[in-house]
Write a structure and sequence with these properties.
Blueprint lengths: L10 E6 L2 E11 L3 E3 L2 E3 L7 E6 L5 E4 L5 E2 L1
Protein name: Hypervirulence associated protein TUDOR domain-containing protein
Pfam families: Hva1_TUDOR
InterPro entries: Hva1_TUDOR
Length: 70
């Protein structure tokens, strides 16, 4: 488990194939779920965060290690 924790509304940034995106945390996931047809294998010990892009409004789940405070 990582020591990176985020709160609802935190401004974050993350890397992807087109560069770096900024956005905000909209939800913490602590149970297995599906987002846009993809399974997110989150648990209380290994949470993931749903983030919303500031530019496009698109939402995706990311592991805490992939996110940095903006």
């Amino acid at each position: 488990m990582t020591d990176r924790t985020f709160k609802l509304g935190d401004r974050v940034k993350w890397d992807h194939s087109q560069g770096t995106t900024t956005g905000k945390v909209v939800r913490k996931i602590t149970a297995k779920t599906h987002i846009k047809g993809h399974e997110v294998a989150a648990s209380p010990e290994n949470p993931e965060y749903v983030v919303e892009s500031a530019k496009t409004g698109a939402r995706a789940a990311h592991k805490p290690a992939a996110l940095r405070k903006a």
